[in-house]
Amino acid sequence: MTNTNERAEKGHWWILTALILGVIVGLVVNKTGGSESWAASFQFIGDLFLRLLKMVIVPLIFSSIVVGIAGLGKIEGFGRLGAKTFGYYALTSFFSIVVGLAVVNLVKPGLTNGQPDPEILAIIQNQSAEKLAAAEMKMESATTVGLGVVPDLLQRMIPPNILAAASNNSAMLALIFVALMTAFALAGMTGAPRDHLLGFFEGLNTLTLIITKWIMKTAPIGVFGLIAAIVAKTGLDIFGKLAAYFFTVVAALGIHLFIILPLVLYLVARVKPWRHFSAMRPALLTAFSTASSSATLPVSMRCIQENAGVSKRVTSFTVPLGATVNMDGTALYECVAVLFVAQVLGQGMDFAGQFMVVVLALMTSIGVAGVPSASLVAIIIILNNTGIEGAAGAIAAILAVDRPLDMARTAVNIFSDSCGAVVIANSEGEELEPLRS
To answer: Which of 202, 214, 275, 351 lies in the 20 to 30 Å Cα band around 148?
Structure first.
């Protein structure tokens, strides 16, 4: 365990250094011109790293679930495990939304002296016709996304074509469902066929873990490319104009990440939160730099098992499922963004309206998780269902700072998933020695 932690520590510092260098180089390129061509080059490097990570998602998740469950030779208590997992997801998502609601009502980033901020209104009114048209198209397309969370989850869970689902990284629920069926069937088998199949999946799991370790050696290069591309294209000027909104989101995410979730770890799981932060640092940095929960999955699973000491059985069920439906950071962001838009447009919300935002944020953070630009789609759904009008310009303005906020909320999503794995592992009687020593 010591050698593993030492290697993770070195990787953590290399990734952090690459992130800082990416910001510096991106700023230099942004200020000296030629940002588009340089950004494209940086993005190419980052995309290669993302492709490498996504390449191992399907075999790693499928083999981990099968080995973790079928390898035990029994499935008793699995219903209990599922109930605990979904209970944790619902509670922490609710807490995150309440935190977002409290902070945005306290700071009121869309108001100045109790009135809509004139500078932000000017930004909204000065959005280019192209950006406004794109925002309006997204708003129109979002109206086709329903709020039937349970039917939507069931449809996404049962694939009409197993092979198609296995080749699609966005069909994570379907992959988990098929892997669970395979694991249960294997657990009920006996004799040589079971031994051969289980041996194959154990070998596949070991193989993908080795490949994941190789890929993570290239992480500093990939992180540098991703961060440099973003900063080269956008610079940092826009953050000054939307600073109040930007830091309101960051503050709310920080409260949930550094106060709420550590309290859950300490009070419920009875582990040392700082130990868990240390165990998850490579995954947190990967999540922040890639802004992709699915791309971070291989790193998260490795950190939770090797550094935090959670069993393969708990990790293989809770973490892939959490990366698909447990979106604490996303739900919080949706809440803050919707109330910010309402403040800027001078359309205040009473208690009933804000309660509706809480309910819709909780539902959409799960229900539209598989839709591209899920956060934006969810925000538009909430806006459409709470009667806020003329939001296209505000959506276009939010998009200007969405990428760094997406990076931050993805890190929160990933850390919440890892906390869920620890809480559930503790409830199942696991020792979790690395987090307690």
So the answer is: 351
Residue 53 · residue 293 · CB < 8 Å: no
Domain 2-435 has CATH 1.10.3860.10: yes
How far is it, in rounded angstroms, from Cα 284 to Cα 417? 11
DSSP state letters, 180-226: HHHHHHHHT--SHHHHHHHHHHHHHHHHHHHHHHHHHHTHHHHHHHH
Query: Taking Cα atoms as reference points, which of 71, 66, 69, 1 lies closest to residue 314?
Result: 69
Residues ≥6 apart with Cβ < 8 Å to 394: 124, 340, 341, 344, 345
Asked whether the beta carbons of 232 and 23 are under 8 A apart, the reply is no
Angstrom distances, CA of residue 279 to CA of 100, 189, 303, 367: 27, 36, 6, 30
Tell me the pLDDT of the chain averaged across its residues. 83
Query: What does the block give as tokens for 424?
Result: 């559930």
So what's the pLDDT on residue 140?
Answer: 54
Single-letter amino acid, residue 307: N
Measured CA to CA, the distance from residue 85 to residue 358 in angstroms comes to: 21
Upper half-sphere CA count for residue 260 (Cβ side, 13 Å): 25
What is the spatial distance between Cα 162 and Cα 125, in angstroms, rounded to a whole number? 48
**Which stretch of 296-300, 306-310, 349-353, 361-365 has the lowest confidence by average pLDDT?**
361-365
CB 413, CB 287: distance < 8 Å: yes
The CA distance from 104 to 274, in Å, is 28
pLDDT at 211: 92
Of the candidates 225, 195, 206, 213, the one whose C-alpha atom is nearest the C-alpha of residue 47 is 225
Q: For 191-217, what is the mean pLDDT?
A: 91
Long-range contacts of 70-74 (CB under 8 A, 24+ apart): 70/182, 70/183, 70/184, 70/186, 70/187, 70/198, 70/201, 71/198, 71/202, 71/312, 71/313, 72/187, 72/313, 73/187, 74/187
Q: What is the rounded CA–CA span in Å between residue 318 and residue 81?
A: 9
